[in-house]
């Protein structure tokens, strides 16, 4: 595969990953008041930690899938 095509594939994978994460963050910020309503501070902290851990895991999965797609595109496999 040409270097130019590999660079284009890498840019596409990064762009798609960024868009997915942007939508996840947007949804999280819009839903946060409903998630935390009616909870005491200790429950809020626990909920926020669970959300952060879940988000970190999701970011890792998106990065891993993006890496797999990029490697397959770079090597010319389908």
Descriptive account of the structure:
It is built from 2 helices and no strands. With 78 residues, it is mainly alpha-helical. The protein has one domain (3-75). α1 (3-36) runs antiparallel to α2. The longest helix is centred in the C-terminal third of the chain and has 35 residues, at 41-75.
Provide the fold topology.
Elements: H1 3-36, H2 41-75
Helix pairs in contact: 1-2
Number of strands: 0
Helix percent reads over 70%
For the record, the count of structural domains works out to 1
The overall pLDDT, averaged over residues, is 78
Unreliable spans are none
Main sheet makeup: none
Order of helices and strands: HH
Strand content: under 5%
Output the number of helix runs: 2
What spatial form do the alpha-carbon principal axes imply?
elongated
Radius of gyration equals: 18 Å
Helix/sheet category? mainly alpha
Q: Quick recap of the structure?
A:
With 78 residues, this protein is mainly α. The chain has helices at 3-36, 41-75.
Write a concise keyword list for the protein shown above.
single chain; 2 helices; 78 residues; elongated; mainly alpha
């Amino acid at each position: 595969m040409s270097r130019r095509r590999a660079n284009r594939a890498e840019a596409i994978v990064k762009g798609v990953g960024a868009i997915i994460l942007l939508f996840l963050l947007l949804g999280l910020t819009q839903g946060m008041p409903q998630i935390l309503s009616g909870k005491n501070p200790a429950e809020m902290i626990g909920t926020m930690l669970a959300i952060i851990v879940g988000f970190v895991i999701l970011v890792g999965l998106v990065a891993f899938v993006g890496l797999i797609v990029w490697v397959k595109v770079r090597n010319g496999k389908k």
